[in-house]
Automatic annotation (TrEMBL):
Chain segments annotated as transmembrane: 12-37, 57-75, 81-103, 135-157, 163-188, 200-217
Domain of life of the source: Bacteria
Keyword Transmembrane helix: yes
Keyword Transmembrane helix (UniProt): yes
Source organism per UniProt: Pseudomonas japonica
PANTHER family in UniProt: HEAVY METAL TRANSPORTER (PTHR42208:SF1), HEAVY METAL TRANSPORTER-RELATED (PTHR42208)
Coiled-coil parts of chain: none
Protein's name in the database: Urease accessory protein UreH-like transmembrane domain-containing protein
Domain Urease accessory protein UreH-like transmembrane: 11-212
Keyword vocabulary terms for this entry: Membrane, Transmembrane, Transmembrane helix
Pfam family, one: DsbD_2
Length: 227
């Protein structure tokens, strides 16, 4: 497991850097979920928010396991290399989107809207939230909301050729997105305002693009690892 620790750190940082995108994609939903908590449950807001996000992260890990099995089946084949290249290109596109320089990645998100149309009615039936299990299940459904950042990270995780590692990477990525969405749910205006700043978005976008370049197979990886 020691060899996967640097990758887990990368996945965690990727989730943190993508906080601005999570805010745009899920911030409104996070606020809506918070407002949906019945008045008598307000004292339990933090626990319910944690349950929402735990369910969401577990759904990411489940998707990582499923796609990781496909990546494992392709390990060592030309398809595995192609998968890694596609994942790297998507990460570069994600960096461009986070920096506000190109929004073409939003077209990728449209691929998951068909599935979300079938899931959304079940999620709606769980409102208003009245218990922790209900919040956990709602979060698990919410984790399938179409998101270019999740898709690009999922492809990167699945390209590792190990289903367990893929699941752990998606788990780490999901944990990295927690601070922003918890802050949004608790109405932490200062945190969300910071992540909306252009300089922060550009810095995050550049780092994600560099990560995408590092993911691309090639001799440059050996040079980067040597330094």
């Amino acid at each position: 497991m020691l060899e996967v620790l640097p990758l887990l750190s990368s996945a965690l940082i990727l989730g943190l850097l993508g906080g601005g995108h999570c805010l745009g994609m899920c911030g409104g939903l996070m606020g809506a979920l918070t407002l949906a908590i019945p008045p008598q449950q307000r004292a339990r807001r933090l626990r319910l928010l944690l349950a929402y996000n735990l369910g969401r992260v577990l759904s990411y890990a489940s998707a990582g396991l499923l796609l990781g099995l496909a990546g494992w089946a392709m390990a060592g084949s030309p398809l595995a290399t192609a998968l890694r290249v596609i994942a790297a290109l998507l990460l570069i596109c994600m960096g461009l989107y986070l920096a506000g320089w190109w929004s073409g990645l939003t077209r990728v998100e449209s691929l998951g809207r068909g599935l979300w149309k079938h899931i959304q009615p079940f999620a709606t039936r769980l409102l208003p939230v009245s218990s922790l299990p209900r919040a956990l299940l709602l979060g698990a459904l919410w984790g399938w909301l179409p998101c270019g950042l999740v898709y690009s990270t999922l492809l990167w995780a699945s390209s590792q050729g190990n289903a367990l590692h893929s699941a752990l990477l998606m788990l780490a990525f999901g944990i990295g997105t927690w601070p922003v969405l918890l802050a949004t749910g608790m109405a932490a205006e200062r945190v969300t305002a910071l992540l909306r700043q252009r300089g922060v978005r550009i810095a995050g976008g550049l780092l994600v693009m560099l990560f995408g370049l590092w993911t691309l197979p090639g001799p440059h990886q050996h040079w980067l690892m040597g330094h």
